[in-house]
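Hi support team,

I'm filing this because I wasn't sure whether my run with pyridoxal-5'-phosphate finished correctly. The job status page said complete, but I'd like someone to confirm that the output block is well-formed before I use it downstream. Pasting the exact inputs I used:
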Amino acid sequence: MVDDAHGTGVMGQSGRGTAEHFGIHPMDILHMGTLSKALGVSGGFIAGSKSLIDYLINTSRPFIFSTAPPPALAAAALAALNLVQSEPDRRSRLWANRTHLYAGIQAMGFQLTQTESPILPILLKEPERATQMSRALLQEGFFIPAIRPPTVPKGTSRLRITVTADHTREQIDSCLTALGRAGTTLHVIDPI
Ligand SMILES: *Cc1c(COP(=O)(O)O)cnc(C)c1O
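And here is everything the job wrote out:
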């Protein structure tokens, strides 16, 4: 089973998600995704064989006792899926931005956890450090949340930076400057 919350619309040549990125046939997995991240709506989906879907509809109590997504949300999700398909330039811009940001963060000496997605986790280990960094960055106009236990295992608190296709090069560069400043002040990295 793939929880593809971070992959839908973003990973893979045509934005179909993590399975496409790793060349896995969609029918070989139970593919769960959300409409709330790259697609910018709300709700989610499970894709798979007809028998799998029939099974889930008939046995998943939370699903059967929940209200279906309203038509406006379904229409917005469909419009977003059409954009994923018809405007691959958005993905190219996203990956160019991601490459630039990743290189800048690495060059300053921050420790990045292993990732292949445009969500970049800077490892800070202690929750206090992650919170201090996040606060310092917010003061400079960058909303980069601190992710701490129980969301991640103890000792692996981190900042999670989400870059998008619409960020400009200037915005990314000033984010790097702010990261360098906060990281130096809080002794996360050596002075540049
Ligand atoms: C965001 C997220 C979810 C939940 O998605 P919602 O649409 O907010 O319910 C599930 N799994 C992962 C890994 C996520 O990042």
